[in-house]
Design brief:
By secondary structure, the protein is an alpha/beta fold. Helix content is about 40%, strand content about 15%. It is built from twelve helices and eleven strands. Strand 1, helix 1 and strand 2 form a beta-alpha-beta unit.
Length: about 290
């Protein structure tokens, strides 16, 4: 196997990085003509993105390996589609972080907004604010007892515009900052203390990994695949977990606990660095070529 044939429907940062230094042929969905008259070409490795197309099962059944981004996804493929467990490998998503001096970034941000340095920042962002629980996030914020808190919600302009209209009844004042199309989103992770994602989406959230890398405490719903990289305390029973205000208040008031969690999150996220995920993918491909 000199050239690795790969099928990947969506964007996969680890695969894209791998392809820069390896001989990879990306297979495309066959046209109707090829489906009818040409000999099918199957991938050596099928990167499962979480959705099925018409020919997905055929390609997955004929691939030598299937790469998924979580153990939850692997379990679903085994249970629902009878895929052999030994054929499926888990490679968690990764990203290339920005070089941010967290301490200096936080200091500059606080100075620009003339905020008390003891203020804690709670952050929420997602590509789709509604599906990822912005309403539930706001419900949590409204239920907090802590007062020295600033809340940041960032998203695409049209979504933030709609959110401004929806939240006008709460009269948040300057407690909640709404950012449209913020250029350096990594900076917002770096200056935040807590990132909460009460999502109903099951696929792995790269934002959880980003928050952890930039030393931010996180909370994620149990049905989301990224809960595999957090501890029990950081796991929400669901988007409407009633214990959340108590947990968040406890962290806001327990400075030592918050510092410890931030440090541990950074440590965990570093294990899922792009370099380490590339090495894992390389080991999988090496075994595949040797078999």
């Amino acid at each position: 196997m000199s050239v690795l044939r790969v099928y990947c429907k969506g964007n996969n940062a680890v695969l894209n990085e791998f392809a820069k230094t390896h001989d990879v042929e990306f297979l495309k969905d066959p046209s109707l003509f090829k489906k009818l008259f040409a000999t099918p070409v199957y991938p050596d490795v099928y990167f499962y993105s979480g959705s099925f197309e018409n020919n997905s099962l055929e390609m997955m059944n004929n691939a030598l390996k299937i790469i998924v981004t979580s153990n939850l996804t692997k379990l679903n493929l085994v249970k629902k589609h009878q895929m052999p467990a030994e054929k499926i490998e888990v490679v968690y998503p990764s990203f290339t972080p920005s070089e941010i001096n967290i301490k200096e970034a936080r200091k500059d941000f606080f100075n620009q907004l003339k905020m008390d340095k003891k203020t804690k920042i709670i952050f929420f962002t997602a590509k789709n604010l509604k599906n990822n629980g912005v309403k539930e996030f706001i419900d949590i914020i409204l239920s907090l007892s802590a007062t020295n808190v600033k809340v940041i919600i960032a998203g695409e302009r049209n979504q933030i515009t709609n959110l401004k209209f929806q939240t006008s009844k709460y009269n948040f004042g300057d407690k909640v900052l709404l950012y449209e199309d913020f250029e350096n989103e990594d900076l917002l992770f770096a200056i935040s203390d807590i990132f909460i994602l009460p999502t109903t989406v099951a696929s792995f959230s790269l934002n959880i990994l980003k928050a952890m890398y930039y030393k931010t405490a996180v909370f994620i719903t149990a049905d989301n695949a990224s809960r595999e990289i957090v501890d029990v305390f950081a796991t929400m029973d669901g988007p409407n977990d009633r214990s959340m205000p108590f947990k968040v208040d406890a962290l806001l008031q327990g400075n030592d606990d918050l510092k410890l969690i931030k440090k541990q999150n950074r440590k965990t996220a570093k294990k899922l660095s792009m370099q380490n995920q590339l090495k894992q993918l390389e080991r999988i491909v090496k075994r595949l070529k040797e078999s």
